[in-house]
Specification:
With 316 residues, the protein is of the alpha/beta class. 48% of the residues lie in helices and 14% in strands. The longest helix has 30 residues.
Length: 316
């Protein structure tokens, strides 16, 4: 199979039929063998009913329905587990991503040998104040922190080699950082392509300003996990040892001063160095223990289910 198109969605009943027909037109004109996998992330409208109807008329349409809203990352995780195509395309269901971009994205993966191509919505039709400026700041911070040189990390339109999606773990709210996850997994041929951004045709956006706050917090998380996720003792142990050495140094100084240099001076408990020493050694011990506990958790943790599926269509 040439292509798997994964579309996570939440309450997008107005756009699904139009998006499906548009994708099918592109697939047929390019003679692709394909599957369209809709992931219904707990919609409360008629989205699942429409997906079910599409699957009866088009056997290439598949669907996964969550019991409730678990988030885009979990939807993508479920989709990535089910895909069969050599190239995987992700796109949003709101018609802001243009299916006409798919053939070129496919060629960049197959013919040019890229592992991942991320869409770059260079010209956007969103609000400048509430979305464009925060997005630029967010992308700048993501570039500097991750080392992945992309202009638009959060673009839903991306193309992946199948091996990429089968070897990364998308959890929490990490869908924004799939290129970083891919890089950390060893896939280095990552680039971007300018894609057309279209104004939302139906409904309203499901995301507010809080997603940028969450995005920056997730950025810190992924930085930490990429650096120390497999070896937390290297961070906490090092910081703990440093703090303990500082505290012990102050304690040693106080002891020598009191015993040999200034026997009749102030009591040790009246000197600020005593409290610095005590605090530093306690913090150092706690940090060291945090690293030790982290190592135990990393070695003993088991995979856990992060979402519940209520129905599936044509998944085998």
């Amino acid at each position: 199979m040439n292509l798997s198109i994964v579309i996570p969605l939440l309450n997008e009943e107005e756009s699904l039929k139009e998006l499906h027909d548009w994708i099918v037109s592109v697939m047929q004109s390019n003679h692709f063998l394909y599957e369209i996998l809709f992931i219904d992330d707990g919609s409360t409208d008629n989205s699942w009913k429409i997906i079910s109807e599409l699957s009866t008329t088009n056997p290439n349409v598949k669907g996964i329905r969550f019991l409730k809203n678990f988030g885009k990352s979990q939807a993508l995780h479920a989709g990535f587990k089910a895909v069969k195509g050599n190239v995987v395309i992700t796109m949003d269901a709101d018609l802001q991503d243009n299916p006409e971009e798919i053939p070129e994205l496919y060629n960049l993966i197959i013919n040019d040998g890229y592992d991942l191509i991320s869409g770059w919505k260079k010209k956007r039709y969103d609000s400048v104040i509430t979305k464009n400026l925060p997005s630029k700041l967010f992308n700048w911070a993501a570039q500097k922190t991750s080392g992945v040189k992309l202009h638009d990390f959060n673009c839903g339109l991306k193309a992946y080699r199948k091996e990429v999606v089968k070897n990364i773990e998308v959890s929490g709210e990490m869908h924004r950082y799939i290129p970083v996850l891919a890089k950390n997994a060893g896939f280095t041929k990552i680039d971007e392509k300018v894609v057309q951004h279209q104004a939302r045709k139906y409904g309203s956006t499901k995301f507010g300003m809080e997603r940028f706050i969450n995005g920056f917090l997730d950025l810190i998380t992924i930085w930490f996990l990429s650096k120390f996720g497999k070896r937390p003792m290297h961070l906490f142990g090092a910081l703990g040892a440093l703090m303990f050495v500082i505290g012990f140094g102050f304690a040693l100084y106080l002891g020598i001063d009191k015993l040999f240099l200034n026997k009749f001076g102030r009591l040790i408990t009246e000197r600020p160095q005593f409290y610095i020493s005590l605090t530093a050694m306690v913090m150092g011990s706690q940090l060291f223990l945090a690293g030790f506990i982290g190592e135990i958790i990393v070695r003993s943790k088991k995979n856990e289910t992060r979402y519940s599926i209520s129905e599936e269509l044509n998944i085998n």
